[in-house]
Structure formats: C-alpha cells, structure tokens
Write a structure and sequence with these properties.
heterodimer; A: 353 residues; mainly alpha; ABC transporter involved in vitamin B12 uptake, BtuC; 14 helices; 4 strands; 72% helix; B: alpha/beta; Rossmann fold; 6-stranded mixed β-sheet; 23% strand
Chain lengths: 353, 535
C-alpha cells in the first residue's frame, strides 16, 4: 500500500489487507521519502519564488532599518500607500482574468478624481452623492469599453486605448488642464486621513474591496464564468455561459474600481489633478502580472495582485527610508516585474519537461 | 521481437551503398536497409515513465504503423524523433549512422518530416508561401527566390495529385487539401521518413482513401512512413509492420499480414475488449418525438434539414466531411442561428438564441474539438465537469455564493459514474488521456440533465478501451430516456445506433435502420449523389 494513493475510493483488496496480521508498526524501518526532483524544485520556485522575495525583503529591511521600517506606524503607512494602487489593480485583474486588456484604467482614475472634486466644488453636491455619481461614471467608462469590445468586436487594446484617450480629452475639456481644487476640503480629506482603530480608512476600503472581489471571482457564478471565459472562450460559450455579458461586467468592475481610486486619490491630495491617476495604469499592470506569477501558474488572481502591490510598496517604502533617489523606484519596480514573471515562466517550462 | 535486431553499423551501410553503385545487386537474404532505427529509447517526465526501452526500425518504402492507447507513448516517441524532446537514453540512427536530433530544425535537416494533427500552416498565406517556409531556395541575404520555389512546389504538388492552385490561400482549402499542403512542405525539404499523426481522424471516407493512395504512392517512391492511427482497419490495410505500444513499452511488433483486428486490439489494450461497436443490439424505441427539425437552413452547409428524434433513441448522423452535420448540430444547440426553418422540442417551438438557452431547455452538445471547444486545459477536472452547471453548486440555496466542496463532490460523483481515471478531481485535465478528457466533457453535459444530447465525433483521439466505455455510457443514457444524436466519421460506431440518418450536401438524404447501418451501406449512401431523383 502506498501512502500517496490520492484516490478517494478504497479498493476492496485494501480493506482485505487490513484484516491480515499487521507487521510491528513500531519496528524501525527507514522511511522511503522520494527525493524532490528538479521539476519539484522549479514548481516550488515558480509558485512561491515571488512570495519568498517579499519575505526576504521584509527581513532584510527589518534588520538594516529596525527603528524606522519595523514599526507599526510604518506598516500602516505601507498599507495606506498601497490602497489606491491595489484597488485599480484588482479591478484590472478582473479584465485580465476574462482574457481582455484595459488600458483606460489610469485615465479613468484621473478623470474620476477630477470629477469628484468638480462635483463637490463646482456643483456643490454633498460628498456621498458625488461619490456615487463618480462611481457611476467609472462604470460607464467600463461599460463603453465592454460594449465596443463585445458588440462591435474591436480588439480590447485598441478599444480601451481609444476610450481612454477620449476620457483624457473630456478631462481636459472639463478642467482646462488645471487641477480642480476643493476650497473647503476638510470633510472630504477626512476620507483618507481619518482613522478607525488606528488604521486609516483607505486600508479598510482596500481590504473590503479585496475580500469582495476575491469572493466574487472565486465563489460566484459570475466569477467562475469570468475565469472560464479567460480560460477558453469557445468552451465557455458552448457550456452555456453568456460570454459577452461576462466580459462587459469585468470591464464595468474595472471602471468602478478606477472610480474608487480616483476618489481616494483626490481626497489624499485635496484636489483633482488632470493626470493624477495616469501612472496607476503601469503600476496596475505590473502588480497584476507580478501576481500572475505567484501561487498559480500564470493565471491572474486577486491574492497575487495584492501581493504584487504590497511587494512594490514595501520596496518603495524601504527606499524612501534609505534615502534613495526616486529613480531607484522605477529600476526596482521594472526589475521586480521581469524577475517574477521571468522566473514563473521559466519554472513552468521546466516543470513541463 | 524483430526490432531487437542489431542496428546495421554505419560504415557497413556506406559499403553497401557503394556496392550498389558498382551495379552489384544487394544480397537477397539481407533485410531491407533500415532508414530509421530507434534503439532502446527511454524517456520519463518527472516520475512518469513515458517510454521504456523502445526499439523499432523503419525501412525505406515501408509503412510502419504505430498503434497504442492514448498515453501509450506514441506522441512522446514522435516528439523525440521531431527533436522537440530529448530522450533520456537510447540511440537513434538514420541510414545506419547514429544521430542526435537536437531541434525540430535538425530533424528536418536529417530528412524527417512530420504531419501533426494540427497542421501548423499559416492560413492567410498562399499554398506557395506555406510550401516555401523553411525551404532553402538558394536566395541570398534572406531573400526568397520565388523563381526557384514555384517549379519545385509545382512538381511536389503534382506528384501528390493535388488539384488546387499554388496561389490559393490555405484558409480557403478543405481540411484534406490542407493536409496535402502540409505533406508537400515536408517533401519540399526532401523528407525521407514522414510521420503522420492520425491523418484521417477528421476525414470522411473519400478523403481518407486519398490519403491512403498518397501514402502508397510515397512508399513506392522509397519514402518511409510512420503511420499513427486509432483506426485499426486502415492500419491493417496500409502498413507492412505494426508496432504496438502499451504503457510506454513496445509490446509487439507484428507483420500486418499475420494479424487481424481482434488480435491487434487485444495487443493494444492488453486484454480482450468487448467490441461494443461490432454488433448491433436492437432496443425498444418509443414513438414519442422529442425533437422535430423542419426545413432548417443556414447556408452554405445546411440547406434544408428535416429530422425527427425519438425519446430514448440513439440516432446516428453519417455523412462526408462538409455534408453539414456539425453545422446542423450547432444550429440545434443555438451556437449558430438558422436563417429559416423550425425546431420544436417536446412539442413546443424551440429557437435558442445561444447555447445557454439550449442548455436551459434540455439540449446539450458535446463539441467536435475537445481541446479548443470544450476543455479549460489548465483547470482542474472538477472545474471542467461543473462548467455548464456552475450555479448548481450553491453553498446555501438562497445565497449567490458557491461551494467548492459541493463542486468537488459533484465531480467525484461523475468520476465514479463514468469511470474517469484521474489521481483526484483537483488534477488539471491537461494531464488526462484523450478518453478520460472526453468522459469529462460528456459528464459536464450530462450534468445539465439533457433530454437531447448531441455528440459530435465523440471518439476521435479516444483509445479502444475508453471507446467501448463511452458507448456503454451513451447506451445507458438512452436507456434512461435521453435522446442521443451522434455524429461520427467512423461509420463502424453507428452499430450502437437505433437509426442512422445520412446527410448529404446539406440535407438528410435517407434514414436507415440501425441493423442495416453497416460501414459499406453507409459509405455507399454518403456518395450516392442525385439519389433523390430516383425516389
């Protein structure tokens, strides 16, 4: 009888043999544990390599910067800095899981940030109303992306580039290129500066969004359908999944997440800058692709994306503490992405051999 | 075993060639010189031994068949010969000289050609452009000298009896014409050993005959053919030697003239198989019509189909490739929309706007292409089994949350019901054999509780043992009241059908009783063009 007979049913002869006299189970017998093969090592490296990098990074920084890095306030700071990127990235992850692309998330973040300031400052809307409207605008941008991709059949890269560029145009038309400053920002800024139980609100928003999106992706019909569509569109369609609806929904979720990030960004800075959120596009792609190389074999998933965001944040934070120049952040982020995805890809190829 | 004969040493081979140049005939008692010989090749992936000490030799002008159940090691051997994989041990010799095939390019250089099931042609390129790929036309600076390519391509295609122009785009060709192009590409590069993987799998009888003719012609010209097929009739008919692989070992190497189908099947499976497809078992058929199709049209393939499907009936759908069978199935399933015509299901009108509506009404289709149309290859068996019934594995009835435990339990249920061989329901389906993959797909659609189950080529790439099990599953479903419409290009398997409809040029030409549906009759009916005028 082997120990690893992973099958559920116990064959009849196994039941039989248990009645036979058993050998002395306490007698010394060298256990034959199979040595890990090269493929096993690669599998572990591919799945946990990136996590390992994060853990090593944290340990190194704890050792070299014990007084500044390893403090609870700095930990909170890292989480807080991660929030906006994390929310955009998780939204983008949905689109990527469905097998599409979204290049408009950064521009949507900028525009939504400007818009929330505008609604409050120019239109005098109460904050909750402004937030709901802005989220709706984010959803509309996603809807436009999704409908053009599925109904007309335009390549998602082109679609979202086009829609994103239009969003930039509307943004400039709305602002004239100047930041929209909120004159009496206290209550709006409180959204990101106030704390509950010692944690700033954005950290809660991030975790709530993460748990929500994880649940949707892994524990609902919609999420399973999104994964199926990304895995094999034709198989999904022939299994009765309404592929176009599913893809549109993924784009809408990405749009709403971009809207949420825009709101947090404006609250953080007190004003909506025309291009404030543009850089989140690259960060979100980096985090999602980094995440695709973590824990799973090249598939996008929420936990991976979160790990990607956190790894970059920890790196950035430590660099700031070490007093390194800003350009090191770019070097770090780029190298990290190539390293993680490269190791993951290499590992998959080695395991397949 | 014949193949364990020692490999002719390199120098000796050269001598022999020299002798012949002198005009002396080769010694009569010597076996024909081996063009390709494989000597105790082994290969393992992780802990799995894919090939163990496999040896075989192919002589010039010989058709050497390679048969075996899925997972027996056929594709591993082909991948090694093609230079995609390196063997762990063992030697490969070409013309008696030991060679290391380090890359697909190297294999080509050594005169090996491969026609895989996926033909690897560029659809939007012309035939000529496809033939010119990797062909050294003597151009410099990376330029292609089309003036050299064209005459050569013309000769190659003419030799293959091709009747299409070099300037046609490959995407406009039929599947069998594309196969000829793929073969032509190997011949452009002077391939002397050509491995063909399941060449007739998606061909109708007529096209398969063309393939056989081409293979015979090639061997007459001294080319050696390694012929891989699940269709034992054609293997017996075509090849001189048949090597049988089982669990990565060469279990037998037989002269085709000395074996018959049943002994060959036994060698493949390792046990005597009950030939489910061999004898027709008459069954009671209900009179109740479940699915009624009237004058269904979708040009160009479906030109007016009228068909009745009874409750609990297994209705076969025979026809040549291109007769419109798959297209008809897709119309009934709502994967495509009909231009005109009516369908009624259980007496009510049925016009599905998509597969989701068809499934909701109790119609399911197991699609033709398992890998591209049915499986999520990276996902687990459990995910694949549940794909058409995701919403059924709810955690609590009124919550929109799913339970992965229930999904696994449902998959385990199907694993035991359909005898799917897998290490666990968490195993990715990419690692399952073709037969088990097909069972996963069938179980997915059975789980939707269909009253009409359409199967499009359910046994392509499925080994003999799993095939028999699939027939049993289909029978059991029909016995419990499911109506089955089964499309197949392997006419022998229509023996399990109660009736067989023959489709010809977009219409149902005739429907015959299952007891009369022999391969010969059906083939004849498929070709009888213009028979309607006699009726």
């Amino acid at each position: 009888m082997t120990e690893n007979s992973g099958v559920t049913d116990v064959p009849a002869e196994h039941v039989e043999s248990s009645r036979r006299p058993q050998p002395d189970r306490y007698a010394f017998r060298p256990r034959r544990v199979p040595l890990p093969t090269e493929a096993d090592w690669w599998r572990v490296l591919g799945r946990y390599g990136a996590v390992f990098v994060l853990v090593v990074m944290i340990m190194v920084f704890v050792i070299i910067e014990p007084d500044t890095f390893a403090t609870s306030s700095n930990l909170i700071q890292i989480l807080n800095q991660s929030a906006i990127t994390a929310i955009v990235s998780m939204g983008l992850t949905f689109v990527l899981v469905a097998g599409d692309f979204d290049l408009s998330v950064g521009y949507a973040t900028s525009f939504c940030g400007v818009l929330v300031a505008g609604f409050i400052q120019r239109n005098g809307l109460p904050i909750p109303a402004a937030i709901v409207l802005v989220l709706a605008v984010g959803a509309m941008i996603g809807l436009a992306n999704g409908l053009i991709v599925t109904r007309i059949g335009v390549n998602p890269l082109i679609t979202t580039l086009g829609v994103g560029t239009i969003v930039v145009g509307v943004n400039y038309a709305y602002t004239g290129g100047d930041p929209v400053v909120i004159n009496n920002p206290t209550s709006f800024i409180a959204l990101t500066f106030d704390k509950l139980l010692g944690l700033p609100y954005p950290v809660y928003v991030m975790f709530v969004v993460a748990v929500l999106l994880w649940t949707v992706l892994n524990r609902t019909v919609l999420g399973q359908s999104i994964q199926a569509v990304g895995g094999n569109v034709e198989a999904a369609r022939l299994s009765g999944i309404r592929v176009n609806r599913v893809r549109v929904t993924a784009f809408v979720i990405a749009g709403i997440c971009a809207g949420m990030s825009g709101i947090l960004l404006t609250s953080l800075t007190g004003s909506g800058a025309v291009d404030g959120g543009d850089s989140y596009l690259l960060s979100a792609f980096a985090a999602s692709f980094f995440g695709s190389a973590v824990l799973r074999d090249g598939q996008f998933h929420i936990v991976g994306t979160m790990l990607g965001v956190l790894t970059v944040s920890v790196g950035f934070n430590a660099m700031a503490l070490l007093g390194l120049n800003t350009y090191y952040q770019y070097l770090f982020q780029g190298a990290l992405l190539i390293f993680a995805v490269g190791v993951g890809t290499l590992a998959r190829r080695r395991v397949a051999r | 075993m014949e193949d364990s004969a020692p490999m002719p040493p390199g120098p000796g081979q050269h001598e022999a060639a020299g002798d012949r140049a002198d005009g002396r005939p080769p010694a009569a008692e010597l076996p024909p010189p081996l063009l390709l010989s494989v000597d105790s090749v082994s290969k393992h992936y992780g802990g799995v031994r894919a090939l163990t000490d496999v040896s075989l030799g192919i002589a010039a002008g010989e058709v050497h068949a390679l048969v075996g159940a899925n997972g027996a090691g056929k594709s591993t051997l082909v991948r090694i010969l093609a230079g995609v994989e390196a063997p762990d041990s063992g030697r490969i010799a070409i013309d008696g000289t030991e060679r290391v095939i380090s890359s697909p390019w190297g294999a080509t250089e050594l005169g090996l050609g491969f026609i895989h099931q996926e033909l690897n042609l560029v659809p939007q390129f012309s035939v000529l452009q496809n033939l010119a790929m990797n062909y050294d036309a003597g151009g410099r600076y990376g330029l292609i000298r089309w003036g050299n390519v064209r005459p050569r391509a013309k000769t190659v295609l003419a030799d293959l009896g091709a009747n299409f122009s070099l300037d046609r785009e490959v995407r406009d060709l039929t599947v069998s014409q594309r196969w000829v192009v793929a073969l032509g590409r190997s011949l452009m590069r002077e391939a002397r050993v050509i491995a063909m993987d399941e060449p007739t799998a998606s061909f109708a009888a007529e096209e398969a005959e063309r393939v056989f003719a081409i293979v015979r012609d090639l061997t007459a010209r001294g080319v050696a053919v390694l012929y891989i097929s699940h269709r034992l009739e054609e293997v017996l008919d075509l090849s001189a030697t048949i090597s049988v692989l089982r669990n990565g070992r060469l279990v037998d190497s037989l002269r085709a003239s000395e074996v018959d189908r049943s002994s060959l099947t036994e060698a493949i499976v390792g046990r005597a198989v009950e030939q489910a497809a061999r004898h027709h078992v008459p069954r009671e058929m209900a009179n109740e019509v479940v699915l009624q199709v009237e004058e269904l049209v979708r040009e160009p393939r479906v030109k007016g189909v009228t068909l009745d499907l009874h409750r609990g009936e297994i209705l076969g759908l025979a026809g040549l490739v291109g007769a419109g069978r798959t297209e008809l199935a897709r119309l009934i399933f709502g994967a495509d929309r009909a231009a005109s015509g009516k369908i009624s299901l259980e007496g009510r009108p049925f016009a599905p706007r998509g597969p989701h509506e068809a499934i909701a009404r109790g119609v399911a289709l197991v699609p033709e292409e398992r890998r591209s149309q049915a499986l999520l290859l990276r996902e687990s068996l459990a995910v694949n089994v549940n794909l058409a019934t995701i919403g059924r594995n709810r955690w609590r009835t009124h919550l929109p949350l799913l339970s992965s435990r229930k999904a696994r339990a449902a998959a385990r249920d199907m694993v035991s019901r359909f005898a799917i061989k897998a290490s666990s329901v968490a195993q990715p389906v990419s690692g399952l054999s073709g037969g088990n993959q097909q069972k996963v797909v069938v179980s997915r659609y059975v789980r939707t509780g269909p009253s009409v189950l359409i199967l499009d080529e359910p046994t392509v790439g499925v080994d003999v043992g799993a095939r028999a099990e699939l027939y049993e599953i289909i029978r059991a479903l029909a016995n419990t009241g499911t109506s089955v419409l089964m499309i197949s290009s392997d006419f022998e398997e229509f023996a399990i059908c109660d009736r067989v409809a023959v489709m010809r040029e977009g219409r149902i030409a005739t429907v015959v009783d299952g007891s009369l549906a022999t391969k010969e009759t059906l083939t004849e009916l498929c070709y009888e063009i213009g028979q309607q005028s006699h009726d």
